[in-house]
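Progress note, sequence design subtask.
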């Protein structure tokens, strides 16, 4: 049986950062990923959506200039823009692979990478399934960094064609003429900014309260809302989704407002952006006593209730940000093999929302 000082399950931002920090300590490290290296920090997440945002920002600025000079707007091709995004994503993945290849050449005894589904058999043994066969490996320490996925609600018939999530939004063939976004948090507002920025989609945004982004300062929210509405976004304030259906390939949704009114709308597409849930199903055998909360794995400064198993990134109940996940990944390794220079705290965390304008 192969033995490692550290096994990291998940090669997203937090898992990758943990593996790199372990190499710093010259520890024999195995990094396991079931899909694509980079996780949601690269694909259908931070890099991908921000690339869409940057292109939309450039298009919005160009269109505003063209209108000033009474010049007709050029036609936009969704497929071509998506290809630009995919090139950015693949470029980042290539850099990560090149980095690991370089480390393997110079520090080959310290870093190994495998693709497959991993499951903890006990607190030290990990089974890897790669579609061809199974292998069991041993780790003195384990880091769980399997990230999160879009939250789905049972009353919403998500088919990833007409009603989409952030994982499937790029699978569309063209810009829809209209789209409703369910959820006025960060993800929903960023996509509202993106699609309204291209100027080809009438965006509807459902908001349970009297303003979007309820956790932000009201003066900041006022600027964001004002710019959205100037760009044609219809914000449904003080409303809740009563019903949503796919009818003849399009979306019909009904809202109920705080004053009791109901109203029905028709759009081409819907995007569900109501948060994310951690990926820990089938990650360990049921008799392993890893404590959970409704939001994710319970940890004390990255250490779980099983002393040699740590959890970092979106799988925990802490703040779900790329920079926080990377910080947690490095911190967990420093706890195992060294001594952190300072405690891990969640106050004064740097955050940014890619809106119009950006909010940090």
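Output:
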């Amino acid at each position: 049986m192969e033995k490692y000082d550290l096994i990291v399950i998940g090669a997203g931002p937090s898992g990758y950062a943990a593996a790199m920090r372990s190499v710093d300590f010259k520890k024999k490290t195995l990094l396991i990923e079931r899909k694509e290296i980079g996780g949601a920090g690269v694909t259908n997440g931070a890099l991908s959506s921000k690339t869409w945002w940057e292109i939309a920002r450039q298009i919005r600025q160009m269109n505003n200039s063209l209108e000033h000079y009474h010049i007709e707007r050029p036609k936009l091709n969704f497929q071509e823009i998506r290809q630009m995004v995919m090139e950015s994503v693949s470029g980042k993945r290539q850099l990560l692979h090149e980095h690991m290849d370089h480390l393997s050449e110079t520090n080959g005894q310290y870093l190994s990478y495998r693709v497959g589904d991993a499951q903890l058999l006990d607190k030290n043994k990990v089974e890897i399934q790669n579609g061809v066969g199974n292998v069991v490996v041993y780790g003195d320490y384990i880091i769980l960094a399997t990230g999160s996925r879009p939250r789905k609600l049972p009353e919403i018939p998500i088919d990833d064609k007409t009603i989409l999530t952030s994982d499937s939004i790029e699978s569309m063939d063209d810009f829809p003429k209209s789209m409703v976004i369910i959820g006025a948090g960060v993800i929903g507002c960023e996509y509202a900014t993106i699609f309204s920025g291209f100027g080809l989609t009438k965006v509807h945004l459902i908001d349970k309260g009297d303003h979007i982004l309820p956790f932000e300062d009201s003066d900041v929210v006022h600027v964001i809302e004002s710019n959205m509405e100037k760009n044609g976004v219809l914000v449904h304030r003080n409303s809740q989704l009563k019903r949503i259906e796919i009818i003849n390939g399009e979306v019909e949704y009904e809202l109920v407002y705080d004053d009791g009114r109901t109203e029905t709308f028709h759009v081409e597409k819907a995007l569900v952006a109501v948060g994310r849930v951690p990926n820990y199903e089938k990650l360990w055998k049921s008799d392993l006593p890893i404590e959970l909360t409704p939001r994710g794995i319970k940890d004390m400064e990255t250490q779980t209730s099983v002393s040699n198993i740590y959890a970092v990134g979106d799988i925990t109940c802490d703040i779900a940000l790329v920079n926080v996940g990377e910080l947690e990944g490095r911190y967990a390794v420093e706890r195992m093999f060294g001594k952190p220079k300072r405690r891990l705290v969640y106050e004064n965390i740097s955050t940014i929302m890619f809106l119009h304008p950006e909010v940090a």
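Helices lie at 13-24, 46-68, 78-106, 186-198, 218-230, 322-337. Work on this subtask will continue into the next period as scheduled.
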